[in-house]
Amino acid sequence: MTAGARDLEPARSARELYGAELRRQRQLSGMSLDRLSAVVNYSKTHLHGVETAERLPLPPISQKLDAAFGTGELFQGLWGAVKREHTPKRFDHCLELEAKAGRIQAYGATLVPGLLQTPAYARALFSRSNLAAGLAEIDSLVAGRMSRQEVLRGDNVPDYWAILDEAVLHRAVGGPVVMYEQLAAFLPLVDTERTTIQVVPFKAGEYAGMNGTIILLTLPDNSTTVYQEGGGIGEVFDDRETVTRRLRDYDRMKACALSPEESAAFIEAAMEKFEPCEPPQV
Q1: Are residues 143 and 260 in the same domain?
Q2: For the whole model, what pTM was predicted?
């Protein structure tokens, strides 16, 4: 058994079945995690997380594993079971496209978009919206969200653009410490080669598409799919009329937003509100 591995119970969940099968196939092939990492072009950390059922095996890892082990569509079939078990049906298609997209544009009216969330921020959200859930279920939901963030790492990182309403910066999800760490986490991504984050200040007044959540996923073939959510209800659109309208709305949001440099200063100012107080001098 590899160092740090934990016992899995394949009958307990599809995710554990996937992890157990990955470990079995890897050991049968005589591959170490380092060797498999080089073959499928995923980090050793991510592969270990999938193997221990702590991370979701997001596409296209299943296809790569089947190719590496010569297992036909075994892992692709297991991924279908994992997806049905842990992901709301309305988000299934969006999640698959997100893993393939060359450009991702997101908007958050009240909450930090999922690809930017810290584990503590995500945990606070899941705990509040799933009051009857046990610790294991919440852990699973957080792990799933963190697994999605693999798209922003690696060799084929998409262009990622996020627009946040100013309200996102002031809502203390999880409390001041969690919020301070959350803002500090995405501050370095405000203006990089592949990531842009802008803030729409309150003084901008009303603007197009200012309610709910919007994700625009553009694939390498230049086709775009829209996912929008409000009041816990999400919808996916890929018809030309809706996509064109939402792309235009997003461009208008950019026009209302602060520049990346101004947005960074805005985020830093918001962090001061949540910054932990120094202990009193004795």
Answers
A1: yes
A2: 0.71
